[in-house]
Specification:
The protein is about 20% helix and about 25% strand. It is α/β, with parallel strands linked by helices and about 350 residues long. GO terms for molecular function: NADPH binding; oxidoreductase activity, acting on NAD(P)H; zinc ion binding.
């Protein structure tokens, strides 16, 4: 076995704040490898909104604005993370690493050595794996993949057999498992017509592909300048991101499911066009978390609302199987060197690219 280094390069988050809260280190200590862990040499790591929102403190209930990627002065130190708890610093973020196993703990399967793996973003207490209150997130409650090496629990990794590059595989974990979780919660099937907001982003594009995989009819909302790129994911129709009269724009379409990652001022319009008995699912609020709801619409139309964050255990493994069978395709928009993470996150926040951005150690 090749001797492992004592230190590594890593982008380290020193506290909540703007992009300058990241510090580049050439000699950061290597991750510890426990008995149930594997050590992975990172080949690529995707960017996602959770990393941005955690860094900025946007998850704090004291913040009522849309996500900007900048620091929020109003953020409360008591609830600045997805789980509503303080974060321990320094922290290496990065929930979407892909790489090869270079060492295994005493309880791990030795056959994992040199295998290419993906990591489940949801870190479970394996003595009580279905308890949501004991679940953490990779790169939040545990150091993640913005580094040359990362350790992960053996039960959270999946070997992936694919001709896709590490960078392409690194687009899947957060975006596609988030999207699949939303569709699982709303039980989307061939009889549904799904309206997807934010369709030019990573989760939006994943929602299109995964809803089509289930046989649903899909209508995407996206800025018109990005329609050509959105079309590559295969929606049945693409509309502007916020039509002035959504009902008119939809024509005779009967929307049974709204899959929303945007929120904001347009939210009541989305609820109004749902068919009786329709389902709404949310896994983001990039345009703003504060919305207005007419409860009469909710109960008189027999609507069902679902929030989607912590996912059932099978979702990650299901997505890996879809990759291996070629049923979904990556949406790799751009790659940046890990050392340029600040620039990569700025591009992600400003939506310079359609799809997913990946950093390479």
């Amino acid at each position: 076995m090749t001797e492992l280094p004592k230190t590594m390069q890593a982008m380290v988050l020193t506290g909540h704040g703007d992009l300058d809260a990241y510090e580049w280190h050439e000699d950061w200590p290597m991750p510890e490898v426990g008995a149930d862990d594997v050590l992975i040499r990172v080949g690529a790591c995707g960017l996602n909104n959770t990393d941005v929102n955690t860094r900025s403190g946007w998850y704090s209930k004291a913040v009522e604005d849309a996500t900007t990627g900048g620091a929020f002065a109003a953020a409360d130190d008591h609830d600045p993370t997805w789980g509503g708890r303080p974060l321990t610093f320094p922290r290496i973020q990065g929930a979407d690493p892909v790489g090869r196993v270079v060492a295994v703990g005493a309880n791990a399967d030795q056959s994992l050595l040199d295998k290419r793996v993906m990591i489940d973003g949801w870190q479970r207490d394996w003595s009580d794996p279905d308890n949501m209150d004991k679940t953490g997130y990779f790169g939040s409650e545990r150091d993640g993949g913005y580094a040359q090496y990362v350790s992960a629990d053996r039960r959270d990794v999946a070997v992936v057999e694919s001709d896709l590059s590490d960078a392409e595989l690194a687009t899947f974990q957060c975006s596609y498992t988030t999207a699949e979780g939303m569709l699982v919660r709303t039980n989307v099937g061939a009889d549904d017509t799904v309206l997807i907001t934010g369709a030019s982003g990573g989760v939006g594009g994943a929602l299109i592909q995964l809803a089509k995989r289930r046989g649903a009819r899909v209508i995407a909302l996206a800025s018109e300048s990005k329609h050509a790129d959105v079309s590559l994911s295969g929606p049945d129709r693409i509309l502007p991101r916020a039509p002035a009269n959504l009902r008119t724009a939809l024509g005779d379409e009967k929307i049974t499911v709204v899959a929303d990652i945007v929120g904001g001022d347009y939210w009541p319009t989305l609820i109004d066009i749902l068919e009786r008995g329709g389902r709404y699912v949310c896994s983001g609020a990039i345009a703003g978390p504060m919305v207005e709801l007419d409860l009469r619409t909710f109960y008189l139309r027999d609507l069902t609302f679902s929030g989607s964050t912590i996912l059932p255990q099978h979702v990650f493994r299901d997505v890996v199987s879809y990759i291996e069978r070629g049923e979904i395709k990556p949406m790799l928009a751009a790659t940046y060197p890990l050392k340029d993470l600040r620039e990569a996150q700025a591009a992600f926040i400003e939506k310079r690219h359609t799809g997913n951005i990946v950093v390479l150690p």
